[in-house]
Design goal:
Strand order of the largest sheet: 2-3-4-13-5-8-9
CATH topology of the largest domain: Ribosomal Protein S8, Chain: A, domain 1
Number of strands: 14
Shape: globular
Order of helices and strands: EHHHEEHEHEEEEEHEEEHHEHHEHH
Number of domains: 3
Mean pLDDT: 93
Largest sheet: 7 strands, mixed
CATH class of the largest domain: Alpha Beta
CATH architecture of the largest domain: 2-Layer Sandwich
Strand content: 15-25%
Radius of gyration: 20 Å
Distance between the termini: 22 Å
CATH superfamily of the largest domain: Malate/L-lactate/L-sulpholactate dehydrogenase, NADPH binding domain
Structural class: alpha+beta
Low-confidence stretches: 350-360
Number of helices: 12
Amino acid sequence: MKADAPLTIAAPSLLEFGRDCLVAAGMNEDNASSVARALVWADLRGVGSHGVARLPSYVRWLEAGDMNPRPAIRTVSDTPVLAILDADRAAGPIAMNAARDAAMERAKGAGVGIAFVRATTHTAALGHYTEAAANAGFVAIACAASGPIMAYHGARAAGVSTSPLSIAAPGGAFGPIVFDMGTGVVAFGRLAQAKLKGNPLPAGWALDGQGNPTTDPALAAIPLPLGGPKGSGLALMIEIVTSLLASNPILADALEGNEAGRRHRQNGLFIALDIRRFCDPDWFAAEAERLARALKALPADQPILLPGERGALESARRARQGIALPPGVVSELRALADRKGVGAEIFAMRDRSSSLDRAP
């Protein structure tokens, strides 16, 4: 394998590696497995910005105390419809799984369940959680708020987060329909990956540290909002709804330079709607499928895809063929493996077949 070529590794091997790295950093095995599943879910779907490339950051946050390896998540407000969870700086996937389960449990009784999670860390790909809820018979909505990394429309500095939003629903024969977006033109993690690859960025993606437009991945520091005022406005409202209602403001502290604003932290919101409380679930799935087929029958120059369909197709392919990690990501993960003393053998594989054959 050339030094600058991707390394293809089977998903089970990446799951094992991610779990072992997080256990070595202090997590218990169950939580480490849950976090690794969320990261590899993103890699399988081709969303490398939220995949195992995040492991070095997660380990750094664990070592710095910004991420709690053994959190005590507690419910600070509890009603038949609403739960507010204090995550105790848990890894985002642990907190969002708890929020999803709390919202779904309440929705079973009231039809609607709402769960806020405050004081968590990087929530990973929100579609991972909404897809699971859709598979369980719910319509799900999730969003997350974090510190200022994206330019507010008209500003030359970071003012809001690239706050993600995901909506998922059962889609009959098509499986879950999973919409998952960030409010930026590009995810911040994708800028980091572009730095590792060294490829020029498209115009209109990012600003440099001085607030000037740039296409140089080495200089890109601030993503621009999707749709200008639309993306930054949506990011602002996610902060207002997700953080202020949970009594845990993030952006104002950071923009004012307060001590709390210098720590890595996020908030999350999960809303579950139990379809059985609104209509017959089989009818709902059939109607969603009928709508999807009608859309796909429209005149087009290329196949019409549903939200999440491309990711699902890619996930099936990568589950068979393995996940190709860019050289820069491989280098960072190899360094992490050496430092933590786990999993180094999967990065010593010199071709795709050997890395795939190793999968348990």
